[in-house]
Structure formats: structure tokens, C-alpha cells
Amino acid sequence: MSSSTFSSAHRLYVKSLYKRYLKNELDWTVTRSIWRAKALLIRAEFEKNRNVHDPRALAVILERAEADLAAKKHPDPYISPLFPNGTKWERNTPPPMGPLYDHEMAEAAH
User: Which portions of the sequence form the region Disordered (predicted)?
Assistant: First the structure.
């Protein structure tokens, strides 16, 4: 069993940062083959800092990465059509499942 100096929360944070970098790059790049080359560069940057174990140095690296990501953020990111705020989000919602006309209520009103 290997011991690690960093918690699982730290690993999840770094994974999330990596995924956000990849997603942001995909927002800027139209062609998947061009994006793949950029994704390899992003991966190399993360791998370069993989063996940093000093918490202070790591905090500086992560702070710079967050600032860099914020500076490069796409102003109009791609949203899948079926996801919330996508172009097809709730376009054809199913009708309510219930009686179309309540006869008992109509008779009671008369």
C-alpha cells in the first residue's frame, strides 16, 4: 500500500482543474485533431508538476493555473444542446400526465 502526502480532496481538485483546462481548450478549438495536440501540451504541463511535494510551491502552482484558466476562459463556451441552457433544453417537455378535462369539477361548478 503506497502512502501519499496529499489527500483525496487534493487529487479531486487537480483532476477538476485538468478537466476544466481540457474543456476550455475544446471551447476554443473547432477541430478535434488540433485540440488533441493542445490536450497533450496541457497533460505535459500537469505531468511536469506531478512530483512537487512542497505544499507552498504547490499552492503557488495551483494559484497560477487558476489565474491562467480564468484569463483564457472562453466568453461563449459550447453547451451541449440537451444540457441546461442548451438550445434544445426543455424544448419539447412532455405534457402533464393527468386528466385532460376534469368532468367532476365542471359539473360541481354548474
Answer: 82-110
Low-confidence ranges of the chain (pLDDT < 70): 1-5, 99
Per the structure, the count of domains in the chain is 1
Predicted TM-score (pTM) of this structure? 0.70
Q: Where are the alpha helices (DSSP H) in 29-74?
A: 32-48, 55-72
For residue 15, what are the contacts with CB-CB under 8 A and spacing of at least 6?
A: none
Contacts of 14 (CB under 8 A, 6+ apart): 46, 62
Q: Do the domain assignments include residue 108?
A: no
What per-residue confidence (pLDDT) applies to 99? 65
Residue 103: inside a domain, yes or no? no
Residues 6+ away with beta carbon under 8 Å from 33 = none
In three-state secondary structure terms, 9 is helix
What is the pLDDT at residue 1?
A: 41
The DSSP letter of residue 74 is: -
The answer to whether position 80 is within a domain reads: yes
